[in-house]
Amino acid sequence: MTRIHKLGIQAALFTIAAAFYCTPASALDVAAAKKLVRGSGCEKCHVADKDKDGPAWKTTAEKYRNDAQAVEKLAKHLTERPEVTFPDGHKEDHKAVKATDEAQIKNLIEWIRSH
Ligand code: HEC
Predict the structure, then answer these.
(1) Are the beta carbons of 108 and 78 closer than 8 angstroms?
(2) Whole-prediction pTM value?
(3) What pLDDT, on the 0 to 100 scale, is given for residue 27?
(4) What total number of domains does the chain contain?
(5) HEC per residue, 36-57
(6) 26 has pLDDT over 60
(7) Residue 11 belongs to what H/E stretch?
(8) Is residue 46 part of a domain?
């Protein structure tokens, strides 16, 4: 691999990492996050400040407030369909978010954490 080529790949990786980890809070697109939440059917189990079958957005925001790996963990939760336990004790694979675009998922996570 040539040096130039390597630099190009590094630059590309850096851009992806920057988009994923360094989006400033001011870039939060609330409308897009809400649209994605509605389109993915999340509100059946999650709302802002009341625990339903799933924790309130506020509960999750609180849980991850001081967790440096919050974005990573939540991105996994929303894309890898982990098994979750419902309040009645039954288990189900969690619903995946209807988006494959990292920036969109990141925006959703920041929106959840903004509660
Ligand atoms: C059928 C009900 C249901 C739907 C629909 C649902 N969830 Fe969940 N969600 C749950 C349950 C149950 C848990 C786990 C609660 C627990 O383990 O205490 C959970 C947990 C979570 C958590 C917390 C994860 C953590 O690590 O603490 C987040 C964030 C979340 N869901 C987001 C979403 C999003 C975004 C959607 C839409 C794509 C969604 N959920 C759709 C039921 C649901």
Answers:
(1) yes
(2) 0.82
(3) 80
(4) 1
(5) HHHHHCHHHCECCCCECCCCCH
(6) no
(7) helix 3-21
(8) yes
> Among the atoms of ligand 1, which is closest to the Cα of residue 87?
12
Position 48 in a domain: yes
| 12 located within any domain | no
Ligand 1 proximity of 58 Cβ (cutoff 6 Å): no
Q: Is 113 in the pocket of ligand 1 (CB under 6 A)?
A: no
Query: What atom of ligand 1 comes closest to residue 44's alpha carbon?
Result: 5
CA nearest to 92, candidates 59, 52, 55, 53? 53
CA 45 – ligand 1 centroid, Å: 7
CATH number, position 67: 1.10.760.10
Question: 54 in a domain, yes or no?
Answer: yes
Q: Could you report the per-residue pLDDT of 46-105, keeping only the tens digit for each?
A: 999 999 999 999 999 999 999 999 999 999 999 999 999 999 999 999 999 999 899 999
Q: 67 is in which domain, residue-wise?
A: 26-113
